[in-house]
């Protein structure tokens, strides 16, 4: 165990050799203790309970317990028509409502063959909102991660910028958190008149702010010391546990569903940031954090391109007359899209009527969280908040 | 490889272990018998031609009309690049469907093949009642060993996603109310 301490923190106890530390721990063995972290712990981002087996400051084993926010979302899906289920998807990953709407809408469209009838304008609007929501979601991740590690100011900066995005959403669909804006066959309504100008204004304002975040938190000495070389997830583990999103890319795997054919992003020019171990090891907490920061910049690029392309599509219908009367054929489909937290998948099975037989949601947070047990053994208690924060789970989606 | 070719390959390797497959659908899937599933899963992961290293999702289904439960495993084969920092490549995708009788639903666990299956199988037991045998996180219940529940409390009765699930009218002295006085789901 002493080796692990040294490996994780090469600069701690520089005066002591590994043998000295091992001897120290031999001299003072402490009693093992079970500690409940959560379900009401501020650093667990909601109602996550992690049972820790500790020996002094060391966490020997961490077992996550979930289900405190289970709302039978899949059972409800078997009683509602697809357009009625859209609001329920908002409440899964409540920081990325637009992306959730999009995943479910696309799954139903693909299943019923409506996909080709969605207009170009509706598709572009969907991309713009999905990317805006990605920025908003990553801003919360960035802000609360600082908060977890004791830095209060970045949180206020993040929420200041997120507010502008929520204002944009509110001006379009009236809601600030649970939008239900992207729906079967398109979106519920066209953009307000000045949307494009306001969006561009925001993007011009936002881009320099990312540099500010880097000065404020990313390269902050204390922050780097607390996150670099901590909670390292190897490439092999990341794939084995089916991690997705920034958690997978932080481990150096360049995998993003938006780059696959058929994603709707084929004609957009953007990069996939991956963890490179700039401050420590590839796949540590800092890498996962920094992938999110760079993804925000890439999202800005995508939105700019989409706004440019929007100019030629005025007057196109963005709603679909079949959106609310859609009947799902007796077939099934599994469809995934790239959410801010990873791949959100919906499995929809129809039976010829308006109401599906089965709706299954594969939440990225659910799969990403399952790796905690693996990562959080033999770490310092103080690192638990850093590791769980870097995985960035939303419990609404874990428990559904 | 297309799902049809993979089915052909599996049939050559495992013969009777492969059950009916369905390809003329939006979700092409290969049927596999429960007893052959762990071997086939390992083959799908380790064979150089297949290389399915990424378990995307496990979906449990209640097929009331066939008196069966099923678990579908959606897989991706993601090829890591030879050069550090280059794009990963999607080789192919596949879905495997394992069906099991409704009155005694047992499927061997594949959590030792893909670690991601661990939580998915716990969820499938919790909500649909499929017993995944030899699951690494099992507990002993009144009806024998089963995976630990994950979303519902440990002492929950029944499996909510079954089509004939009865709504509990009381839980630890807490009375429950349902809309229109229903006691079971209407489908």
Keywords for this structure?
heterodimer; A: alpha+beta; Cytochrome-c3 Hydrogenase, chain B; 4-stranded antiparallel sheet; 3-stranded antiparallel sheet; 16 helices; 48% helix; globular; B: 187 residues; alpha/beta; Beta Polymerase, domain 2; two-stranded parallel sheet; 10 strands; 30% strand
The largest inter-chain interface, given as chain pair and residues per side, is:
A-B, 45 and 40 residues
- Principal-axis shape of chain B equals elongated
Mean pLDDT of chain A: 87
Order of helices and strands of chain A: HHEEEHHHHHEEHHHHHEEEHHEHH
Counted beta strands of chain B: 10
The span between the termini of chain B is: 38 Å
Which fold name is given in CATH as the topology of the largest domain in chain A? Cytochrome-c3 Hydrogenase, chain B
C-alpha Rg of chain A (nearest Å): 22 Å
CATH superfamily of the largest domain in chain A: Cytochrome-c3 Hydrogenase, chain B
Helical content of chain B stands at 10-25%
Instruction: Measure the end-to-end span of chain A.
Output: 37 Å
Largest sheet of chain B: 4 strands, mixed
Low-confidence stretches of chain A: 1-6
What this model shows, in words?
The complex is a heterodimer of chains A (about 400) and B (about 190). Chain A is α+β, with helices and mostly antiparallel strands and about 400 residues long. Chain A folds into 2 domains: about 1-65, no CATH class; about 75-400, Cytochrome-c3 Hydrogenase, chain B. Chain A has 16 helices and 9 strands. Chain A has helices at about 1-10, 20-25, 75, 80-90, 95-110, 120-150, 155-175, 195-220, 220-225, 235-240, 245-250, 285-310, 365-370, 370-375, 380-390, 395-400, and strands spanning about 30-35, 50-55, 60-65, 180-185, 185, 330-340, 340-350, 360, 380. In chain A, the strands form 3 sheets. In chain A, strands 1-2-3-9 form a 4-stranded antiparallel sheet. In chain A, strand 6 and strand 7 form a beta hairpin. In chain A, about 50% of the residues are buried. By secondary structure, chain B is α/β, with parallel strands linked by helices. Chain B has one domain (about 5-155): Beta Polymerase, domain 2 (2-Layer Sandwich), CATH 3.30.460. Chain B is about 20% helix and about 30% strand. Chain B has 3 helices and 10 strands; from the N terminus they run H-E-H-E-E-E-E-H-E-E-E-E-E. Chain B has helices at about 5-15, 35-45, 115-130, and strands at about 30, 55-65, 70-80, 90-100, 105-110, 130-135, 140, 145, 170, 175. The longest helix of chain B has 12 residues, at about 5-15. The model of chain B has no long low-confidence stretch (mean pLDDT about 85). The interface of A and B includes residues 331, 332, 399 and 400 of A.
């Amino acid at each position: 165990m002493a080796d692990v301490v040294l490996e994780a923190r090469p600069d701690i106890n520089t005066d002591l050799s590994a043998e000295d530390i091992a001897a120290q721990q031999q001299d003072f063995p402490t009693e093992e203790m079970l500690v409940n972290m959560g379900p009401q712990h501020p650093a667990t981002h909601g109602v996550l309970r992690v049972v820790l087996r500790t020996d002094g400051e060391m966490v020997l084993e961490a077992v996550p317990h979930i289900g405190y926010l289970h709302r039978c979302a899949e059972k409800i899906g078997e009683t509602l028509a697809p357009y009625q289920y859209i609001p329920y998807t908002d409440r899964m990953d409540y920081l990325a409502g637009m992306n959730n709407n999009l995943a479910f809408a696309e799954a139903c469209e693909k299943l019923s063959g409506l996909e080709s009838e969605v207009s170009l304008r509706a598709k572009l609007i969907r991309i713009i909102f999905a990317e805006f929501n990605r920025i908003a979601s990553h801003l919360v991740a960035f802000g609360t991660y600082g908060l977890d590690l004791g830095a209060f100011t970045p949180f206020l900066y993040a929420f200041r910028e997120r507010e502008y995005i929520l204002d944009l959403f509110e001006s379009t669909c009236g809601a600030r958190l649970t939008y239900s804006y992207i729906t079967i066959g398109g979106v519920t309504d066209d953009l307000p008149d000045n949307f494009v100008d306001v969006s561009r204004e925001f993007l011009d304002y936002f881009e320099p702010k990312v540099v500010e975040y880097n000065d404020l938190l990313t390269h902050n000495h204390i922050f780097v010391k607390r996150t670099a070389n901590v909670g390292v997830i190897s490439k092999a583990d990341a794939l084995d546990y089916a991690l997705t999103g920034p958690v997978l890319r932080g481990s150096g795997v360049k995998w993003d569903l938006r780059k696959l054919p058929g994603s709707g992003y084929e004609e957009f020019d953007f990069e996939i940031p991956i963890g490179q171990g700039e401050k420590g090891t590839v796949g540590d907490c800092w890498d996962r954090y920094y992938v999110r920061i760079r993804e925000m910049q890439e999202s800005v690029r995508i939105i700019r391109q989409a706004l440019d392309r929007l100019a030629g599509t005025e007057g196109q219908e963005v709603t679909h007359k079949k959106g609310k009367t859609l009947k799902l054929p007796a077939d099934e489909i599994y469809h995934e899209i790239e959410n801010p937290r990873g791949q959100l998948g919906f499995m929809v099975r129809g039976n010829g009527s308006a109401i599906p037989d089965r709706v299954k949601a594969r939440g990225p947070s659910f799969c990403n969280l399952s790796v905690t047990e693996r990562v959080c053994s033999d770490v310092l208690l103080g690192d638990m908040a850093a590791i769980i924060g870097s995985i960035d789970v939303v419990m609404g989606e874990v428990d559904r | 490889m297309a799902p049809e070719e993979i089915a052909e390959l599996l049939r050559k390797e495992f013969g009777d272990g492969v059950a009916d497959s369905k390809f003329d659908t939006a979700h092409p899937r290969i049927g596999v018998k429960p007893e052959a599933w762990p071997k086939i899963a390992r083959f799908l992961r380790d064979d150089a031609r297949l290389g399915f290293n990424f378990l995307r999702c496990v979906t449990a289904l209640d097929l009331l009309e066939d008196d069966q439960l099923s678990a579908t495993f959606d897989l991706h084969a993601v090829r890591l690049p030879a050069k550090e920092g280059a794009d990963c490549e999607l080789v192919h995708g596949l879905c495997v469907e394992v069906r099991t009788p409704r009155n005694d639903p047992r499927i061997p666990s594949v959590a030792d093949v893909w670690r991601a299956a661990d939580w998915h199988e716990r969820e499938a037991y919790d909500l649909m009642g499929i017993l995944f045998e030899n699951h690494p996180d099992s507990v002993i219940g009144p009806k024998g060993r089963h995976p630990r529940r994950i979303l519902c409390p440990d002492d929950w009765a029944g499996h909510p996603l079954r089509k004939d699930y009865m709504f509990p009218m009381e839980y630890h002295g807490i009375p429950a109310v349902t809309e229109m006085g229903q006691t079971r789901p209407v489908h």
